[in-house]
């Protein structure tokens, strides 16, 4: 659905040149919720603004659907942009317009009749749960309600792609959860492809099916979220499941990280190790998280006893991954 190939964006010239994006390539399938994760200054917002050409890339190519967006200008570009909705961190609502008028604005630009605009606006506000706020002004809304208006406005033109630029970072955790669940529901019901920019790991954990990690304008890791979470060496996994570095172990102890997924996350594995193999087990750290709709966990443990190899073989026979560090 979205293909980004060798994308570069440089601001300034000569000694003052800053490379915001450095040879970025991504493939985002149709219907996917794809997250781009990175800290402030990593180039995330520049990347998403290049997708709809609000920023002109220095080089590289971007294809959305069957159109090479980077080759368009004028009316063809405006038409292509109408198929891409965008929601913003600070909502960008028109303060002098009511909720309904904000949502109707892109429909006015498209030239729809007043009756067609009213019908579409009513449908969209019901979709985002704001049918009672038709005549309210932005100043009368909470942050979460403002973002729902922003989402409704972004959907007004029936886009194939929804671009989300830090859309929840100005919201409290409970409101963030509700907005992300709304986006997940829209993705399922409408088949929307969502490109989601964020610096929050919780956002990726809740709704993203795939992720790319951006650092200093470069992609340093990308893949399916659940697959990366199961790899102890991945950056995503290490952020989700921080480990204790250089723990103080008992003499002769083995340091192991056990990775759980799906139903295995509910199994009493350590209880079995204690009873079946007469081990002493000291859990040093880790957690079990719900990532997307799958429970995944990593637990770091100190194992003490004479049957450690047998115990590790038993764990692997259960289909669990084990990484022995010491």
TrEMBL record:
Segments crossing the lipid bilayer: none
SUPFAM superfamilies tied to this protein: ACT-like, P-loop containing nucleoside triphosphate hydrolases
GO biological process: amino acid transport
GO cellular component assignments: plasma membrane
Keyword Transport: yes
Single GO molecular function: ATP binding
A family per Pfam: NIL
Leader peptide range in chain numbering: none
InterPro entries for the chain: AAA+_ATPase, ABC_transporter-like_ATP-bd, ABC_transporter-like_CS, ACT-like_dom_sf, MetN_ABC, MetN_ABC_transporter-like, NIL_domain, P-loop_NTPase
The UniProt record lists the keyword Membrane: yes
Lineage: superkingdom: Bacteria
Keywords linked to the UniProt accession: Amino-acid transport, ATP-binding, Cell membrane, Membrane, Nucleotide-binding, Translocase, Transport
Occurrences of domain ABC transporter (ranges): 2-241
Family, similarity comment: Belongs to the ABC transporter superfamily.
PANTHER family: AMINO ACID IMPORT ATP-BINDING PROTEIN (PTHR43166), METHIONINE IMPORT ATP-BINDING PROTEIN METN (PTHR43166:SF30)
Protein's name according to its UniProt entry: ATP-binding cassette domain-containing protein
Lineage of origin: Bacteria, Bacillati, Chloroflexota, Ktedonobacteria, Ktedonobacterales
């Amino acid at each position: 659905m979205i293909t980004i190939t060798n994308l570069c964006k440089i601001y300034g010239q000569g000694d003052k040149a800053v490379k915001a994006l450095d040879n970025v390539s991504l493939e985002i399938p149709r219907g996917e919720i794809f997250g781009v994760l990175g800290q402030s200054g990593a180039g995330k917002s520049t990347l998403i603004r290049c997708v709809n050409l609000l920023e002109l890339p220095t080089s590289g190519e971007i294809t959305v659907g069957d159109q090479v967006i980077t080759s368009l200008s004028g009316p063809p570009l405006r038409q292509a942009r109408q198929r891409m909705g965008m929601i913003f961190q600070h909502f960008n609502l028109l303060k002098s317009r009511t909720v309904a008028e904000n949502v109707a604005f892109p429909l006015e630009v498209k030239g729809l009749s007043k009756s067609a605009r009213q019908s579409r606006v009513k449908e969209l506000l019901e979709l985002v749960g704001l049918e009672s706020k038709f005549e309210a002004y932005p100043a009368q809304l909470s942050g979460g309600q403002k973002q729902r208006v922003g989402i409704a406005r972004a959907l007004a033109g029936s886009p194939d792609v929804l671009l989300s630029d830090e859309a929840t970072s100005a919201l409290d955790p409970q409101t963030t959860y509700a907005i992300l669940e709304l986006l997940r529901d829209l993705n399922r019901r409408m088949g929307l492809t969502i490109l989601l920019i964020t610096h929050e790991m919780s956002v990726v954990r809740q709704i993203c099916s795939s992720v790319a990690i951006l650092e200093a304008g470069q992609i340093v890791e990308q893949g399916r979220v659940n697959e990366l979470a199961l790899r102890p060496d991945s950056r995503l996994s290490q952020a989700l499941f921080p480990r204790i570095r250089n723990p103080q172990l008992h003499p002769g102890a083995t340091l192991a990280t056990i990775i759980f997924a799906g139903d295995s996350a509910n199994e009493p594995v350590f209880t079995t190790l204690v009873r079946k193999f007469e081990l002493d087990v000291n859990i040093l750290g880790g957690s079990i998280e719900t990532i997307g709709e799958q429970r995944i966990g990593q637990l770091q443990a100190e194992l003490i006893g004479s049957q450690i190899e047998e115990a590790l073989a038993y764990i692997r026979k259960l289909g669990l991954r084990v990484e022995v560090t010491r």
